[in-house]
Structure formats: C-alpha cells, structure tokens
Design goal:
heterodimer; A: 237 residues; alpha/beta; Rossmann fold; 2 domains; 4-stranded parallel sheet; B: 217 residues; globular
Chain lengths: 237, 217
Amino acid sequence: MKIGIVGVPPQEVLDKYRGNDFIDLDTLFDFTDNSKAESYLPKIYCATIKSIIANALTIKLDLIIFDNGYSKCDNGRFISEILKRELNVSIVTTQNNATRRHPQTVCESDLELRKKFDLIVDSVVKDVDKSKLKYVKPNYGFWGVPPNDFSILDLFPKETHVFGWARCMEARVPADLELETMVREDLPTVFYAQAFCSKNSLAKYLAKKHNGLYVEVDDVLDNSVKSKIEAYLLLNK
Amino acid sequence: MLLGDVGTSYTKILNTEKDEYRVIKTLDLLKSDLRFDIACGHNAKLRADRVANELVALEKGSRRLIGNGNFLVVDVGSRDIKYVKMKSSKYEEMDWNALCGATLGFSIELLENHFNVKTSEIEKTSQSLGVTCGVLGMAKIFDKISEGCEITDVLASFVKGIAENVYKFIDEPEFFYLSGGLYNNSLFIKSFQCKVKPLGRFVLLEGLREIGDSGVR
C-alpha cells in the first residue's frame, strides 16, 4: 500500500502499517505544485498546508494517516476534513499525545543542518541509524518546523542545534509544548515560522524573549530574509 | 577601491583613493559598465564581484562614525527599513523590513515629483495618515485630496504616518541615529516623537570601507 503521512502520527498507528510505502505529504517534492491546492484553499495560505493538499491530489494513495490535532496545527484539522470529503481515499485521523521523549541525537549532531532535517523528517516513518552521529558544540540554534523551502537551512553552519517542533518530531512527542518552547539562553537562535502558520505567535514571542531573530517565510526564501539571517549569524559570531 | 551601495533607486559611490563620494541613479548605473570592488544593496550582485551584507555594512559604518558602545541606527531606504541595535559593542537586536510596511523613500519621492512639492519644505503636522506601507498610504492621500484637504497638509500627515511606522518598527526608542536618503528631510525627522540624529547618506559606504580594510565579509 502507498500511504501518505501528515504530521507525526502515534507510533502504534504507524507500526500497524509497517512494511508499506510511506510518503510524507508535508514535503515540497520536485513535482509538488502548490497552486493545485488553490481549488480548496485561499491563494494566500500556509505553504506547507498547500503542499499537503497538492501532494494528496497528485500522488495515487491507498490511505492517508493524518495527525490532525494539536500535535500538528489547527489548519491540519480543517484540511483533513477537506481531504476526507474530496478524495476517494481512506483517511485515518489521529492525535499524538505521546509524552516519552526519545533522544534528540540528530538535532545536536555535527551533520549539516539540511541533512539534520532530512533525517528528522525520515525518522517519522523509518528507523534511522544514529549510532555514528557525533555531538557538535553549537554556535547557533534554529527553532521551528521543517521549512517548506529547505534552502534556508543551507545558510547555517553545521554547528547549529535544532529546536522547536522539529525537535519534538525527533523526540516523537509532537504535542510536547514544553519541549517545543525550549531554547538555550546563551545561544543565538533564529526563530522560523511558515507564513500564515499559527506557530508565528510562538516564534515571535520566543525570539523577543531570548534576543533571537524572528523570520517568517512564505513559500520560498526571498533575498531580504536570506540577508537578514546572514547578518544575524555574522553579527553574532 | 571603488565601493558601491547599490540601492533600488540610487547608488551611492565612494572612491577611497580620492575620498570622493557621489550619488547616481541606479537605472543609470545599470546602463553603464561601472563595477565595484565591494558593494552592498539590492542590486549589488549585478555590479560587484564581492558583495557584502547590508546590515553588516550598516553596523560597521555606524560604528566607524559613532564609535563603540551603545547605539541604535536605522536606515530608511527607498524600498526598505533596516536597523541594528548594539549594546556595549555587542549585537543586541536587528530587523529588516523589505516587504509589507516598506517602500517608504520611494513613495515620498514619487509624491514629490507628482505634486511638484519638496516635503522637506513643508511644516510638520500632528495629524497622522495611518499608513501601513507607502503603496497603501498613497491611496489614502488621493482620497483626502478628493475630500478637499490641502495637498501640503495631506503630504505632511503622510510623512508623519511613515515616521510613526518606522518608530513602531524600531520598538519606540527615546533616541536613534538615522541613515539613508531621508537624513536631510527635516519634515521626516521632525515627524518622529523621539530624538533623531542624522548620520548621512553614506553610512553603508563607510561600512564597506571598514570591510575592505579588515578583509571580513
């Protein structure tokens, strides 16, 4: 079976379908055409949510496992309902309330930041070998969700630790608000949120509180945000 | 060294050998073959092999002009607003607004040309035209004029609105240094509800000079 995954569904649900072909519908694939989502969503909307709809409309799926509660976001709850009504595919909706935090080895490893995120996203649906990963002393932090456009991650050196919901993903506790809001006081951190995502409130608040840099990105990274991040990293060297 | 701050509307140039500053229209630059040793700004990569970050140039240029210590410097450009706040010579805060809430200098120049008025010669007003950005503010200007308001009064309230926008963006300080093309617009400066000290139009060029001298990015 080809199964679309949204968010971080509970492990016991994923285990039930182990051995099948999982596809993360939150991902901006080369073939993802977000404009397809505009049949159901406003034109100005969260790019990640658009990608979920566009992927669900494009890929021939047998099942979607949609973690659509507060472990994902409000938008997720609404679009899971849209997909239920519009697609001829079974949809299992879940709320992941797991509280046992798994080690966040990838988030603190010496991998390039993009590679860290590739592994974090992969770790939702498959076992990732973390045995050879080495801890890196951080110079910077990146807080947020996996961005729609991963090129933002290339601006950071590998001495960057991951915080926010992405960290919750690796820890397999997507509804753990305490972990999501955890940051290191002394670490210059960029607080990232996808435009039109409610996590902007947390990003802005935490950035202000911890003297970090708040950035909001719609769809793909533009030059002014790129320059802003570069300047922040250089001025905090 | 030839240094360039290649903005959306104007390019500021410094020849360090002659210590000579000049300003040309960026459209004229793009029609010429002129290239810079180091440049920053929106169109810098089109005319320089070495491109420096604008905010870093702003910080380094301000430090060169003000000295080390605490400062908040704001650069209001044609298209964007950016600021850097330093405390005891260490980074404190920064932001850069190039999209919503921007196009300020560009809008003022467009209106001055349209109405053939120099806003720096207009008296300040306490009335503010609530503007979220230059473009949206412009629609309000034409509405006010159609209601019979004096053009100079409307322009003064537009500039006041823009100053309020900048003031909120930089978190309502008691004092700041102003960089950019509006440094000598007295109406703009008087429209702030805090003390403003203009640093001139060539702050980023001073930053580029510092970057060139030190070899950092």
